[in-house]
Amino acid sequence: MRKAVGLCLIWSIFLFFSGGAMAAAADAASAKPFPDVLPVPGTVTMIDLGAHSCIPCKMMAPILDKVEKKYKDRAAIVFIDVWEYPLEPQKYKIRAIPTQIFYDHTGKEVFRHEGYYPEENIVHILDKLLADQGGN
Question: Among 40, 54, 59, 110, which one carries the catalytic annotation?
Fold first, then answer.
């Protein structure tokens, strides 16, 4: 009897965890990829991967808006919500949010930062990338 109860318990635990794995696999299978081609071809690009619910990400939002307006026709500033697009964190190999990834105009990743990043640091990197491109 004890052996039967033990086997039932083990089987229940197995079903519990395999069900979660199947649900995660189903979520990943139905997850939508981010619709834009990134980095933007021929353009200096900054991608910020975060979430609307994370505190440092919320602190970054007004900075990203300001930087996006400043560099409107010269650089692409893109925010990707990792909860809305769950395939993107693995694609970009991020370990924490927010993560900022900077690309030069050839599409080469040149810098990556994890966590809150002040506006002046972002501006410094974008200005350098644009100067190297000849677009500043």
Answer: 54
Can you say how many angstroms the Cα of residue 97 is from the centroid of all Cα atoms in its chain? 7
What residue type is 40 in one-letter code? V
For the record, the structure tokens of 89 come out as 């964190």
Distances (CA, A) of 57 to 80, 85, 112, 129, 136: 11, 15, 15, 24, 28
In a domain, 112, yes or no: yes
Greatest CA span in the chain, whole angstroms?
79
The encoded tokens of residue 79 equal 């925010």
Tell me, yes or no, if 8 is annotated catalytic. no
Active-site residue, selected from the candidate residues 46, 57, 63, 129: 57
Does some domain include residue 35?
no
Instruction: State the pTM of this model.
Output: 0.77
Q: What does the alpha-carbon distance between residue 132 and residue 136 come to, in Å, rounded to a whole number?
A: 8
Helix (H, G, I), strand (E, B) or coil at 81: strand
**57 is known as an active-site residue:** yes
* Domain span at 64: 44-133
Same-domain check for residues 110 and 58 = yes
Query: pLDDT tens across 65-103, in order?
Result: 999 999 999 999 999 999 999 999 999 999 999 999 999
